[in-house]
TrEMBL record:
Low complexity bias: start-end ranges: 266-276
PANTHER family found in the cross-reference section: PROTEASE FAMILY M14 CARBOXYPEPTIDASE A,B, SLL0236 PROTEIN
Keywords recorded for this protein, A-Z: Hydrolase, Metal-binding, Metalloprotease, Protease, Secreted, Signal, Virulence, Zinc, Zymogen
Cofactor(s) demanded: Zn(2+)
GO CC field: extracellular region
Keyword Hydrolase assigned: yes
GO biological process, one term: proteolysis
Official protein name in the record: Peptidase M14 domain-containing protein
Record domain Peptidase M14: where: 123-423
Annotated InterPro entries: CARBOXYPEPT_ZN_1, CARBOXYPEPT_ZN_2, Peptidase_M14
Localization, UniProt: Secreted
């Protein structure tokens, strides 16, 4: 029953948002329920009236956040569900204040500046501190890296990444491109992208395997491809997903940049409604972030070839392969992609036993139209175009405690190394 997998996210805070003393949307008293799949459609229909939020819907589960005043009405629906979080506001508080960026350790070689310390990965950080971290990482590896820009966000921020290369020189090898935080609330993806970039820089001088990765591929890592949305999650609404694009005559804000890619753009895996969390935009590719990202991706693919593209998301612990737009279309090398994904999932599980499932996007999570990995596979011509859904499976969801940043980064790094060793 294909329609069960169709994503129709309700608008968050359709009713009036409650603000705390600092002017941020308050999630105090909101509960997360995991609704059994057979009741998912029924709950979806009621969600707007309940002022509830759609968090994650897969074939296996549907997670919704319900505000305190609607809990009783939700219970009256009498659907089978499990309580997975008692108070999102309390979890957001536990996630901690953003930590200042302070510590640097000594340089890897005398000509270079200090490399950022691993303590960076003990907390979440402000957007400006992420830019400083990236620039410090670059300065610590000056002959093999540069900061680059992949266009401009709706509000005018530079979409920023770090380009790393090895002994063949800049731009000489097939490219590997990572996009983090296209969905603003998926903060763990920012940290995991930076963790992988940091491991590549730190390892180049003292680990022959890591040196071989950089000598074989050019890495383009963009930890925050939706900077406006990310800043908004820090100033105003922790659970914001889309960009912050406004459109004349439309009051709802935001386009889902991961439904806006100009390939298989329209269809049931995206929404025409501007208030939906999966709003695809008025025309394909009309989000400024999408323009910058696809121009960069296509240029790199044209000049160097695109070996691997990964779009990093959370949560659900999945490795998603093409395609999202159709459950029957298959990438020509899907068997090889499945074999590789299986190896990556076992490498991820090795350190802490974290289980990732894998498979084509449409049948593994749900149908997505206008998604980045379909575009990267078929238009940019990537050999492999994947999306990861990082930790966890719902207990903390998007608000993953900072103690889990390093384990998430480490297991993802193990997975990426396995992939690089095997393709
Ligand atoms: O719906 C999405 O965009 C992703 N899931 S999430 O819950 N993080 O929003 C899945 C993305 C699948 N990959 C692409 N279509 N690129
Ligand atoms: Zn996402």
């Amino acid at each position: 029953m294909k329609f069960l997998r169709t994503l129709l996210l309700a608008a968050p805070l359709a009713g009036a948002a409650r603000l705390d003393r600092r002017g941020k949307v308050s999630y105090d008293g909101y509960k997360i329920f995991r609704v059994a799949p057979e009741f998912a459609d029924a709950v979806e229909t009621e969600l707007e009236d309940l002022s509830g939020m759609h968090l994650m819907r897969t074939a296996q589960h549907f997670d919704v956040a319900i505000p305190p005043e609607s809990i009783e009405s939700f219970q009256l629906l009498n659907v089978s569900s499990e309580l997975i979080s008692d108070d999102i506001g309390a979890e957001i508080a536990l996630e901690g204040e953003l930590a200042p960026y302070e510590s640097l350790v000594q340089a890897l070689d005398v000509a270079a500046a200090a490399v950022p310390d691993a303590s960076w990965f003990r907390a979440y950080h402000s957007y400006n501190d992420h830019l400083t971290f990236l620039s410090d990482l670059q300065k610590s590896f000056p002959s093999n890296s540069e900061i680059f820009r992949a266009g401009t966000s709706f509000q005018g921020r530079a979409i920023t990444g770090i380009h790393l290369w090895g002994s063949g020189g800049k731009g000489s090898k097939p490219a590997i491109t990572f996009h983090g935080t296209v969905h603003a609330r998926e903060w763990i993806t920012t940290m995991v992208n930076e963790y992988i970039a940091w491991q590549l820089v730190v390892g180049y001088g003292n680990d022959t395997t890591v040196k071989a990765y950089l000598d074989s591929y050019d890495f383009y890592i963009l930890p925050v491809v939706n900077p406006d949305g990310f800043v908004y999650t820090q100033t105003t609404n922790r659970l914001w997903r889309k960009n912050r694009q406004t459109r004349s005559g439309i009051s709802a804000v935001g386009t889902d940049v991961n439904r806006n890619w100009p390939y298989q753009w329209s269809g049931p895996g995206s929404s025409t409604s501007p208030s939906s969390e999966t709003y695809r935009g008025q025309s394909s590719g009309d989000a400024p972030e999408n323009l910058g990202l696809r121009t960069h991706l296509d240029n790199v693919a044209r000049s160097q070839g695109l070996k691997l593209y990964i779009d990093w998301h959370s949560y659900s612990q999945l490795i998603l392969l093409p395609y999202g737009y159709s459950c029957s279309a298959r990438a020509e090398n899907i068997n090889q992609q499945m074999t590789l994904a299986r190896g990556v999932a076992s490498a991820i599980a090795r350190p802490y036993g974290t289980r990732f499932e894998y498979g084509p996007t449409c049948s593994t999570i749900y149908q997505t139209n206008g998604g980045s990995n379909d575009y990267a596979q078929d238009v940019s011509g990537a050999e492999f175009a994947w999306a990861f859904e990082l930790r966890d499976t719902g207990r903390n969801g998007f608000v993953l405690p900072p103690e889990q940043i390093i384990p998430s980064g480490f297991e993802a790094w193990e997975g990426i190394k396995n992939l690089l060793n095997n393709f």
